Amino acid sequence: TAIVITEQPVSVSVPVGYSFTLRCRAEGRTSLQYQWFCQHQSVCSQIPGATKQDLPITAQQTQLYTCRINDLYKNAIFSDWVKVEVHQYVARGLPPQLWRGEPVIVLNPTKQRVEVGKALQLQCAAMGVPAPSYQWYRNGNPLEHQKKKKLWITHTKVSDSGTYLCCASNSHGEHWTNAVDIQIGETLPPAEHLQLCHLVFPVATGKIALLVGNNRYQHHPNLMAPVTDVFELSLLLEQLGFQVVSLLD
């Protein structure tokens, strides 16, 4: 072809306000011209003045980017689309000025109990430059088809029970999420469940804490912090002798 891209831009996952540069390089038979585009919520637009190989960005919102390269003979080619994922809060204890792009976990999966046959969804998230890749593990063994931020098992089996965690990695290193125990089991029939309630609750004398974290709203972007807060607060309450029941969404 008349134009060959020699360096594609790469996706990143960064905190809001973080400054970085997307790069694109190409070779051709004549001098080349560059033009960057961005897409947000299905609307694609040309970025005014973005006509150089490098595109400096200060992260404000999650968007997709691509670069068009053309030569003097009207040949044109587009780079890969890349995602700039922006986290609206910075992980606790992370000094942004010292961060060099290594993976940093900002959302850990949470412990769950699921009925047999029901769906299991675990979620994690990490910042990184370039954007981290993900690999989920159960009982220390990698799960072949679980390589995204969200682990999804449509119809669970008892054998899906175990300890789950995820590894986020990029060219700067790797970082692991917390390990969580997932229990897959049958539920008690209604009559037995009612009988169990009568036996347990009249004589219950322990301290019980109910934690509810909402991170999905109909008219507001999804939040991440409530999930982390529920997890951390449940650990604290358990250390204080509480029996903790955690609910999400």
UniProtKB/TrEMBL annotation:
Q: Which residues form the Caspase family p20 domain?
A: 205-249
Protein origin, superkingdom: Eukaryota
Q: Can you give the residue ranges of the Ig-like domain?
A: 1-79, 103-183
Instruction: Answer whether the UniProt record assigns the keyword Transport to this protein.
Output: no
Q: Supply the alphabetized keyword list.
A: Disulfide bond, Immunoglobulin domain
Q: Does the keyword Metal-binding apply?
A: no
Q: Which SMART domains match?
A: IG, IGc2
What Pfam families does its record include?
Ig_3, Peptidase_C14
Name one molecular function that GO assigns to this entry.
cysteine-type endopeptidase activity
> Please, one GO biological process term?
proteolysis
This chain belongs to which protein, by name?
Answer: MALT1 protein
